[in-house]
Amino acid sequence: xxVLIDIKEEITVQEAxxxxxxxxxxxxxxxxxxxxxxxxxxPVQRLFFECYTPMALLELEKIARHTLTEMGIxxxxxLHVSGDKLPGETVxxxxxxxxxRAAAFAACQYAIDTLKETVPIWKKEYFEDGEVWVAAHP
Amino acid sequence: xxVLIDIKEEITVQEAxxxxxxxxxxxxxxxxxxxxxxxxxxPVQRLFFECYTPMALLELEKIARHTLTEMGIxxxxxLHVSGDKLPGETVxxxxxxxxxRAAAFAACQYAIDTLKETVPIWKKEYFEDGEVWVAAHP
Amino acid sequence: xxxxxxxxxxxxxxxxxxTLDAAPEKVAVLREQLYQRYPRLRELRSCMIAVNKxxxxxxxxxxxxxxxAVIPPVSGG
Amino acid sequence: xxxxxxxxxxxxxxxxxxTLDAAPEKVAVLREQLYQRYPRLRELRSCMIAVNKxxxxxxxxxxxxxxxAVIPPVSGG
Lengths: 138, 138, 77, 77
Hints:
The complex is a heterotetramer, with two copies of chain A (138 residues) and two copies of chain C (77 residues).
Chain A: E1 3-8, H1 13-20, E2 27-34, E3 38-39, E4 42-43, E5 46-51, H2 53-70, E6 75-81, E7 83-85, E8 90-98, H3 101-118, E9 121-127, E10 130-133
Parallel strand pairs in A: 1-6
Antiparallel strand pairs in A: 2-8, 3-4, 5-7, 5-9, 6-8, 9-10
Helix pairs in contact in A: 2-3
Chain C: E1 2-5, H1 7-13, E2 17-19, H2 27-37, E3 48-51, E4 54-56, E5 68-71
Parallel strand pairs in C: 1-5
Antiparallel strand pairs in C: 1-2, 3-4, 3-5
């Protein structure tokens, strides 16, 4: 098993790193995304993540496979949360292992960049005076 | 406190990530280095890390400060092990937090690249038929 | 034909899914029907249609049993 | 003057530190003394000298109380 994909309420950095750790790869690059406490200076009280889960899992799997076949990655884990989250909490973890650390960094960055563009997950920000689906409007 | 530097027998990814997690930074890049089980096809049984600890801490601090002043990093943790390690065990963890994830990746890569060039830490590999200080000879 | 709606599209429609009387022949026709029923979908930065969990182009053909989803701008991560 | 040795330099010298009778005036002179005492140091890919925990250049001046260290090629990470 070289790919771990999951969407669930709680995720940890450790489970992603543990999955990709192999004695034949010296380098693991990881991206950890957390909830920011403000957007454009406005305090965010909490977030809500909605997922079209079956399609999101397929899109995450595509991203993961691309890093294995095209970017020199041996193992990759991509974990994303769903549901309510508070500032500081972890919302996404990507860990990529490669014999070459430059490849691991490149794959990790590719994975988070592509996730943010293509994976059907939506974030709603709750402010003191209302709520907004992020990036919905121009 | 925006910099965590340490050299000790056991390190974890989680302590580095926990240190740099702040509610005002959405992105954390991490590098995790582990012991490989072979060098040029030859099985490695164990490693030993020797450190000139006081100077190594100063060099690590320099690397960390550079990412804060020049690379847009808000918080960084650099942890390195000393002593005996087995294949698969973690030997170095670098975690960098920035509001911009590209900056976090760049800083993490800069830190591990520079660490490998300048920080006075030495790795000895133990094979079935002998031992070698890594990279000592041309 | 059942159509799933997510994020702000769900809020605009006021429901997580709606049912169309007939399956439009092409994605472009489906899109036009959705825009007429929910004009505020036009105001979104983008509005993709997924057919059977894969992003579809306007020229793609639809079958009655397809799983259709309205995908407003994603914002995961 | 005390000189700390690490990694393969420690193995070559057979000790983690040695004492020189007098403090050489410059790093270059110290380096030459070390090479004469331990010719195998010349075979290393590099051999840096640190003075008071900072990498030194051959032209740098030494003081009697300085903390000197022989830094063979590093291999951390």
